[in-house]
């Protein structure tokens, strides 16, 4: 839910800033600057409603990914995606459910910050791992090994305050290595995440949504963005503002489960050639 909190803070700050600007509009009279009257209440209310609606949309889109993954066993169909009713598990269900175990399939996504001159180089700052049902198995902020020169908060969602409870790179690497052992690792351009962790993984145990031919059709054979795939195939909008590695991992898992049969068939065909 850290992505939700960051989006709320960002939108709230934007709202407060906008209100202040409107309430303190200046006009020039006899060479002096004076403040005009406050914005009519109805205009402020409309702006508030607009922000609240945007926040509601963020909540809905993020919750929908988890809801669909959690509610369905096996393959997920287009019919399952059409059910937009969000049903999330209760705390008691989470404690008792087998769906909270790592299982055979894990989806991973990482966020990065900039290091070096002008933040041109990337350093791991967060890793999130979810299971087949979208349940978060591991989610940690990671202390960059070099001095951060660009937090890239607008896209990474990472800020200096997240480093307070962050783990070291070695800790994140070791935990990820343990989790991925004997697992099918799912992700979008997942080789980037593995490289960032300095981990290798057997090719036969990787399912990369960026390489599936059906997905690449919408970008004319080029590598499609995860955001574009989620919008086109899931009708779910992600990465509207700051990214969430949890949401991105869930989106990758949902895409995989939606086309699991076809992805596995294509994978077997490539291996046999």
TrEMBL record:
Domain Exonuclease positions: 104-265
Compartment list: Nucleus
Classification via InterPro entries: REX4_DEDDh_dom, REXO1/3/4-like, Ribonucl_H, RNaseH-like_sf, RNaseH_sf
Basic residues bias locations: 17-38
Domain of life: Eukaryota
Gene Ontology molecular function, alphabetical: 3'-5' exonuclease activity; nucleic acid binding
Keyword list, A-Z: Exonuclease, Hydrolase, Nuclease, Nucleus, rRNA processing
One Gene Ontology biological process: ribosomal large subunit assembly
One Gene Ontology cellular component annotation held by this UniProt entry: nucleus
Region described as Disordered: 13-45
Pfam family, one: RNase_T
Family: Belongs to the REXO4 family.
Cross-referenced PANTHER family: RNA EXONUCLEASE 4 (PTHR12801:SF45), RNA EXONUCLEASE REXO1 / RECO3 FAMILY MEMBER-RELATED (PTHR12801)
Biological function: Exoribonuclease involved in ribosome biosynthesis. Involved in the processing of ITS1, the internal transcribed spacer localized between the 18S and 5.8S rRNAs.
Protein name as annotated: RNA exonuclease 4
């Amino acid at each position: 839910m850290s992505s939700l909190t960051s989006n709320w803070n960002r939108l709230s700050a934007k709202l407060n800033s906008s209100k202040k600007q409107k309430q303190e509009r200046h006009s020039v009279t006899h060479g002096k600057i004076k403040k005009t009257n406050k914005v009519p209440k109805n205009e402020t209310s409309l702006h508030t409603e607009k922000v609240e609606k945007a926040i509601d949309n963020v909540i809905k889109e993020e919750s929908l990914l988890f809801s669909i993954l959690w509610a369905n066993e096996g393959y997920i169909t287009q019919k399952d995606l059409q059910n937009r009713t969000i049903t999330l598990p209760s705390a008691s269900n989470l404690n008792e459910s087998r769906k909270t175990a790592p299982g055979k399939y894990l989806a991973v996504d990482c966020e990065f910050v900039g290091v070096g001159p002008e933040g041109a180089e990337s350093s791991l700052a967060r890793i999130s791992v979810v299971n087949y049902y979208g349940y978060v198995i591991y989610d940690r902020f990671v202390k960059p090994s070099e001095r951060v020169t660009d937090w890239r908060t607008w896209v990474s969602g990472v800020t200096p305050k997240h480093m307070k409870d962050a783990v070291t790179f070695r800790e994140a690497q070791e935990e990820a290595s343990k989790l991925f052992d004997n697992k099918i690792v799912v992700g979008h351009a997942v080789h980037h995440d593995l490289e960032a962790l300095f981990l290798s993984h057997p090719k036969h145990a990787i399912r990369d949504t960026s390489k599936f031919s059906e997905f690449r059709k919408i970008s004319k054979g080029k590598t499609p963005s995860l955001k574009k795939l989620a919008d086109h195939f899931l009708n779910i909008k992600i990465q509207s503002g700051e990214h969430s590695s949890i949401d991105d991992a869930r989106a990758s898992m949902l895409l995989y489960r939606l086309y699991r049969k076809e992805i596995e068939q294509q994978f077997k065909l490539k291996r046999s050639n």
